[in-house]
Design brief:
It is a single chain. By secondary structure, the chain is an all-alpha fold. The protein is built from two helices and no strands. α1 (2-53) runs antiparallel to α2.
């Protein structure tokens, strides 16, 4: 039993490590998308300033439509990444809780075994002491 709990604990540790790697990748993607949105917004603001300074050049309305489409697409991707991050964190919490449960059960079993061994040793010592007492008083 003890080995099986330790094996389950190691499996959960492996699962946690894998979830952490996936979470790190998702967090990188979230950071990347956030950076892209900021850059897109900065580019839009620069273009808006240019359009105000040069009103006769280009069609700023078409650029705004394109900007809004790109921004919406990036925000949708970002929202999907954030949902995956939340799901991964939930999975990690559940896996950690399960791993901790295995560790606690294993620790309790070890303590119970130690108590049983200690009780047997104490019983043996008591028996030895009783036999020595009887032998000592029986000889006199």
């Amino acid at each position: 039993m003890r080995n099986s709990l330790q094996t389950l604990g190691r499996i959960k540790k492996f699962e946690l490590d894998e979830l952490q790697r996936r979470l790190a990748a998702e967090l990188e993607q979230e950071e990347s998308l956030t950076g892209k949105i900021k850059k897109l917004t900065a580019d839009y603001e620069a273009e808006k300033l240019f359009a105000m300074q040069n009103p006769g050049i280009g069609d700023f309305g078409a650029y705004t439509d394109l900007y809004l489409k790109r921004r919406r697409a990036l925000e949708e991707k970002l929202e999907a990444v954030r949902r995956r991050i939340e799901n991964l964190r939930d999975e990690m919490a559940a896996a950690f809780k399960e791993r901790k449960t295995y560790e606690i059960v294993d620790e309790n079993r070890q303590q119970r075994r130690r108590k049983e061994i200690d009780a047997r040793e104490q019983k043996t010592l008591d028996e030895i002491g009783t036999n020595a007492y009887i032998k000592k008083h029986h000889e006199t």
